[in-house]
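wait is this the right file?? whatever heres the structure
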């Protein structure tokens, strides 16, 4: 695949407008993408790939504006996952 060296988890915060009982999306307020990735991938590459290959292809442009907040791997590199990386556990 296009991003075969990344394992992506994403969340969106979307602002809606009530149009006579129908909830209509107005804009994407926040995009959060955390990606576990191979050791060789840099944060700059991840940010570029997320914006160019994921966000632009998944979220219609009309929902993104200058106020949209992007958190792309906000905690930095994410090479180790599972209990070793996320739960504070270590191998003995």
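ok assuming it is, sequence goes like this
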């Amino acid at each position: 695949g296009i991003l075969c060296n990344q394992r992506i988890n994403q969340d969106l915060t979307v602002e809606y407008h009530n149009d006579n009982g129908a909830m209509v999306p107005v804009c994407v307020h926040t995009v959060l993408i955390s990606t576990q990735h191979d050791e060789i991938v840099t944060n700059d590459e991840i940010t570029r790939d997320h914006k160019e290959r994921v966000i632009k292809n998944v979220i219609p442009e009309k929902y993104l504006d200058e106020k949209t907040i992007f958190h792309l791997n906000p905690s930095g590199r994410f090479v180790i996952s599972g209990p070793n990386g996320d739960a504070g556990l270590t191998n003995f």
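The mean pLDDT is 80. so i think its the right one actually
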